[in-house]
Amino acid sequence: MHKPTAILYGLVLLAFTILPAEVVSNEARRELHGAVQTIYQEGVPHTDRMGRLMFRYQNGKSFFPIALYHSLTGRHKGHDYSFQQIASAGFNTIHPWEGQRLEAIIADARANRLQVIFHHPTNSEVKRFANDPNILAWYLEEEPTGLFPKEAIYDKLAAFNKRVAEIRSVDRIHPIFPLDRPILKGREADWKVWASIGDVSSHFHYPITGQKTASLATPKDFPASISRAVELNAQKRPLWMVLQAFTKPTERWTMPSPAQLRAMTYASLIHGATGIIFFAFDSFVTRDGAVVGMAPNPINRHRALTKRPPLEATNAQLTKSRALWSETKKINGEMKKLTPLILLPTSKRKLRVFISGKSVSEVPVRVIIKESENQIYVIAANLDETALEAEFQLAKSPKSVSVEFTYSAKPKTTAKGWSEKLEGFATRVYRVTP
Asked: What is the pLDDT of residue 67?
């Protein structure tokens, strides 16, 4: 995935270097306007396991894809792969490497109860698997506004629509979509078309670059990329967000820390993602693109896929790869438990958020509120690397506040809510009894 020209990405990276310096706010206590996300109050657009559109959560039917890009099964380049290790890490969906045809991977997907997002299906594959319960979606175009020049965009759109019509004549169930990149300067209109043309909206945004990433909110504004797609589609189309789980030294992308990947995931949920795709599983496939992804047991060197020599990983990169895989297993487990909440309509309850301490971005803490069985759930993320004292206020003082999962946090009760120190890139799920 993502093999744009060096010139294109050079321009993108140059644009990042000339953006204004990050803003450091003062230490005084202040209210964060814009922290609370109010999307999806009338229903959350998502799908079932075969990609059929839904707006109301139904236990046993609603589906939240947790996918791994470039998944592998079978023997390749002297190594054995199985979807079992992917399923055991908490993924419920795979994007198989394009070098594997659908008939070669479907049995292993079924055996491990994995849904399949399949890239560039052939006519025979669509016909054969049109009603297959393990197919989630057909993925047609990759990074159209990055790989297609502006003057070719209308021809590409026409070709996309023609291909959609061909598939729809055979398969009326599974969604069809393109997967794009963040907006490039001068391509805003093109991006909007591709972000809203599919049955699902999907794009990647990789904010971890250089020696240090102090915030997900500035200067690259990761959460704004998600909100833009949600609003563009009038909150009516599922959004599958592609997250950075790799390093590519030739393009200045660096491996996220486990905390950064966690913050990206929770920021995605808070801002409207109804599916997560992690890029990418580390293998000879990613190394051919000069990328080190995440894996449970990555190796230094792979046999070449093409004529060019693949990237050889350093021991430090392998350590980070394993750490990211381990953290992703925890994140996946949390997302599965949160799915019934994420896919419920967002609460209209009022909440005020205050912070104390120096922040990198203007609105470092983001939250969304869900309600279930007389409980209030506040899903929160600190998008900055700096620790902040945060206070959350409801209209009335809650009876009790606890933190879900295994965090060691112990919120302090305040007059109308609770407060807690949020470490850099922290995530929380508060359970509040009103």
From this structure: 99
3-state secondary structure of 341: helix
Residue 75 neighbours by CB under 8 Å, 6+ apart: 81
pLDDT at residue 292, as a whole number: 98
Question: For the chain, what is the mean pLDDT?
Answer: 93
The DSSP code sequence of 346-375 is: PP----EEEEES--SSSS-EEEEEEEETTE
Token digits for 155? Answer: 């021809």
pTM of the full structure: 0.94
Counting every residue, how long is the chain? 434
Q: List the chain residues with pLDDT less than 70.
A: 1-26
State the DSSP H helix or E strand holding residue 421, giving kind and residue range, or none if neither: strand 417-422
Residue of 78, 77, 96, 76 lying closest to 86 (CA atoms): 96
pLDDT score for 23: 55
Say how far apart CA 77 and CA 25 lie, in whole Å: 51
The three-class DSSP label of residue 83 is: helix
Task: Strands of 61-194 (E only): list them.
Answer: 66-71, 74-76, 79-81, 93-96, 115-119, 135-142, 176-179
Which of these, 185, 231, 202, lies nearest to 137 by C-alpha position? Answer: 202
